[in-house]
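Listing 4. Sequential folding, example run.
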Amino acid sequence: MYNMSPYSLSRSFRDKPCRAVIYGRASTEHEAQVKALQNQMQWYDDVARFHPQWNVINRYIDQGITGTQVYKRDAFMQMMEDAKQHKFDLIVTREVCRFARNTVDALVCVRQLAAMGIEVYFVNDNIWTLDGDGELRLTIMATMAQEESRKISERSLAGQRVSREKGVLYGNGNIFGYTRNKLTKQFEIDPDQAETVKMIFDLYDSGMGETLVAKELTRLGRKNGVGKVKWDAGKVSKIIKRKNYLGYTVYCQSYSNNYLEQKRIKRDESEFVYVKGGFPQIISEEQYERCNAIRRSRTKRLTDEKGRTRSLVFSRLRMCGVEK
């Protein structure tokens, strides 16, 4: 038989006058989700009218934020801080998946709140966390919400694979050297930016390093992707590495470590997936390969006699006796 929660029915704010707050969340900033969030707020107003004993004193709203990690949600974290100050007695939220899609997060937060005498009411799930069976029912619903997140992640990955096969382009299309046609959604060459791209490859091909190329672009008044005459070695190197300039769409440059943490991890260049035909070509294959062979040789890393990894440039300075 299930052991009853230490939070007995008598502690629940089910029928008691209390200070209540609303917590709402929309997972994206898309127009449909924004409208859904507005409807969600109207729905909360309707719910509050059926509970005249509530004094609704605040609303905490996260918009465009995932539910799998609470620390990424500013409004949620502020609500937890305010709970520590005993600013309210009851949190009202629509359903468990709005509160958290991570089972551990949901239980940890609810237990922290219960220890402070604060209850969470999940309206659609009809769960009052200070009820005797509140934690058991919450565990079941939170596990189901987490499982739904896993399925969404799998569907998303499958959709990405299909998109790659069809040559669908990801992102907003902000790639220096190109503009994206609003009607066709395809990339087209931006003549002025493409000229700068060719200039970068020509200068680098002639023997200049990234820093010298950046200084030359600045001297010539060439604008970067945001329209400013501001260049550095990093921007130059990024352009030299881009295989888009050969007409390739590049996929799988990073991945999410798992569906709960959703931390983006950059892949090594050797793991990128290239699909020919997504972009008009700006640079020849021969020049691209020459420049990237130079880049790789300049960034080659060596291991010293102590097993430490150092850049080739640093090692040459050390041999010349300039290491401090």
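-- end of first protein; second protein begins --
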Amino acid sequence: MLKRYHKIAGGIFRLVDACVIGVTWLCAYFLRFYFPLIDTPKSLPPFSTYATLTPLVIFLWVIVFSSMRVYQSHRMLRRTHEVYLLIKAHMIALLLFIVLTYLISEYKYSRLIMFYFGTFSLFFLIIFRLALRNFLRTMRKKGYNLRYAIGVGEGPILETVIAKIEKFPELGIRLVGVLTHELSDIKNIKGKPVLGHFTEIQRIISEKNIDEVLIALPRKQTQELDQILRLLHNETVSIKLLPDLHEYITLGCEVEDFEGFPLVNLNDSPLEGWGGIIKRITDLVLSCLLIILFTPLMLAIALIIKLTSRGDIFYTRKRMGLDGKLFKMIKFRTMVTNFDEEKGTAAWSTKKNDKRLTAFGSFFRTTSLDELPQLFNVFKGEMSLVGPRPERPVFVEKFRKDIPHYMLRHKVKAGMTGWAQINGWRGDTSLSNRIEFDLYYIKNWSYFFDFKILFVTLWKGFINRNAY
């Protein structure tokens, strides 16, 4: 029954994609020649020249999408990952289509039509795909199209899996019970009944009409995996293996397919691929605009520093950034020249009424005006507008020994503002809380999360009571 549903669902997705591809291809023709946005064509090519290509376009897209597993069931896959896979498959199909039309035909098809078609078809493919997925999630939440599963294992890893499945009923997975290695007086785990020993798995699958088996063994029982898989050798159920790695995962976990061999990435940066590219483009554009906007203010600050204290206008020191690489961070100088070197000390942060500050130093720090030159670090790609604040190497070496997971904050670029800063963890405040907020930001990063932090930074203003 489940396989039949998969075929029906796959057929619906293919039909919707075929309609989107065919309609947007034909609409691109009318948009180009009947509603020109750039230039008015001198002559109109026959509609049939483009219409006859419609079957080829549809066939090519469905074949490419099928070969790249776009139509596979993605219940447990994040929608962002599915969209990324859809974009990747669409770009490959579009490239193949352009090559084919160039090689097999003497007629030169309009490049603008290709652009319109590629852009609008991708937009509507994503819209309809997300709409269908949301519809299916809603139906599963109401109890339709369910998959029945059993868990095999015990301990924290199995309990975590049960909790997450219960948290997301829209996945349509119903865990009917668990099988354990050691039978005891425990009758249930996280509310799920213990059905017996794992050696009874074949009987339980038959009696309960199980569709999926979730194997979540603790590390001390991994030697039992071979026996469990042998018992499942002739079963048609879907098997999912969850390795006991939860205590090693801080930022996240992702599995890659390396020529059919699974590779588990632990604590990988979320800013890989398109996410990192979009964030960099945003940083480049906004930093450029902000530099232009704040140039008069920065010139005024530079003049004040020059007139009120001896020394350089800017303070540049090495900071640790992405992947532990060092860069020179730029700030307006707010301290008297060579104070640290003269006293032979290096303080982590300034204190209230710090004697090292210049006449306007405290004001510049409290208002964050001393940070404005870091826009040039952002423009150069050494920093980002949003991210964990960069630290001096001498303190990094100390903190990495004393604070667990400290170095994970260097999995993304350092930022001018961040989740920790807008929540008050700045200056001489709790370092452990700051790290906690930094790791939360990295683990839950999204493009909209960045804009939320930027908006709150502007809304609250740059003044901070913990910045001296």
